[in-house]
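Worked example 2:
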Amino acid sequence: MRKLAIIGLGPRGLFALEELLKQLAQTKSKIKIFGFESTDFPGAGPVWNPKQPNSNWINITERLLDQIKERPEINLFGTTVSAFPSYHDWCDFSLKAFEKDRFPPRNKLGEYLNQRFESVHSAIKDNQIFELIKAKVQTIDCADDGFELNYGGETLQCHDVLLTIGHQPTNISDQLKQWKQFAKNKTALKVYEDTYPVQQFKALKNKTNMFVGIRGFGLTMVDAMRYLTINNYGNFKIMDEDTLQTCYYKVKPQNLKLIPFSLDGLPLAPKPYNKITDNWYSPRNEEIETLKNAIITSTQSNPTASDINFLLQPFSKIAARVFFDLYDKSVTHQSTKKEIETLILHFLKNDDYQHPLIQDNSINTYDLIKKYIHMALGKAPVTLDFCVWQVWRHCQPTFYRTLSHSNLDDELMEDIIALDERSKRFTYGPPIESMQQILALVDADVLSLDFVNDPAIETIENGWKLTNYNGKTISVSVMINSVLDSPKLVDVTSPLVVDMLKNEFIKPIHNDLGIATENDGHVKSKIKDKTLTISVLGRLAKGSVLGVDAVLECFGPRIKDWAAGYVKHL
């Protein structure tokens, strides 16, 4: 009987298993599946761990989790895997269009994912279809008829491998290496290489007279900030439900100070307040169809695209129409739709492009956050850049489906990924409440925005001294790294990936990107004229695919394509 190993059983691994079982039920093919997951919560994995604190929030509105559909009943080999409800049915979700969007804690989705996995596992664990192995695979070697997997001192022979291992550790930066070396053997100083799990900061959150530097100014910083400040000394309180204006109240003095900083100092922009304001930026169905066809024409069997204009031009038409239609809600202008389209093209090609319709990012960071909040609330004139990136967010599912596994030049694909990464300050932005919490902490003198823009950092006897562009200084005794590594394959340090690269089982599509894969996730690789039956879904395939960091993509068509392709070739 053919044996398949699925390495990593987070959301992607869970959905891959479900789709595989559905395909096997249709074809009556028999295989043995081994699932490897080292965490305590298969289906959820470390990112969606149901036991993480409530201070870690999802950054996608719960309204859009309707895309996690129900699993139908599966009948195979005399076994019935019961149907499992959609996320919305599971949590009895209900929300009116005018009500504020909800962004639940990540542990809530994690509980759903873990329960969904267990409902599969309980049905198939006793009939030789599936075996769960709680371990990390360390190395993979070629065997006579497939592969030998090595884990925890044991081995497993299998014919095929599917990697769905998500975020992997990478080589840390020289800056972090220097900080760790400096803090070594100094009990008063701490350097945290990663933010997660945030529970590692438990010993810090109720300390007094502590100044903490946070490297990074994105979503991960917000999680660290929230965990550290919801403590025995204070908490947040919403003062105005219409604007989510928040205060941070102190029950007793702590003298805690958080100092975030990044290379550009630019803050996140929150997502729109509710479905009504979000729909302001939604393209029409016919516009999405036109965009999709334009991309497919330029990128598929006989690609004609030589630069990124093939994508930017059709998108700019949509974004210009949306902004033009926002005339009573946008910054005042007398521009024609065509002029706006040209402005958008210039803006997308040049991160430093300036225009009266584009938000001036050089203003005070506190005021910039307030402007973004008011735009997201629909209570301030919308700038062109805010509008463009909200439209981009609505178009991202189309980009992810049509640009993945295209025949584009690798460098052109890298340009597209870079632009999508640039968008994430807006498209992957947090709820309004998170940004109001930042302002509340500034007002309470708990968080400082004075050093967000690339401060000079030097080591001193009692820690690190940060100096901003005005010459203002502050010293910290704790450094937290909240910058998540990009999935650059050649920098990954996990033993499994390093071993597979060394053995040439996998190779990067580009030096700055991930593993080269086919449409069905199959790795483009051969060893001694033998085609390797290894497939990769998710973050490590970035470059072949787009949208690897979106949780909804874990339940998308790429996983279905893999399952159908795998069973077809059995």
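The mean pLDDT is 90. The chain has three domains: 2-169+486-568, 174-268+432-481, 278-427.
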